[in-house]
What does this fold into?
Amino acid sequence: NFHSPLKYAIYQHLLHSILPFLAYLGLVFYQIISKNFLLFSAVGFLSIHSSCGKCFFIKILSTTFIDK
It folds into this structure.
């Protein structure tokens, strides 16, 4: 039981860093097609490095596609 909090912390870190990053890569590909790569890459980079990347990323995702 000593290692279970550590494993949970690692799992939470992966959940909040890798999943938004994979979704970010998909949106970068979308933005390259839409020719808005430079602006969105800066915003997406901030979403990865925010304190809660997943929540911030969902906001960007919703606003980006609503504006289109």
Q: What stands out?
A: The chain has a mean pLDDT of 63.
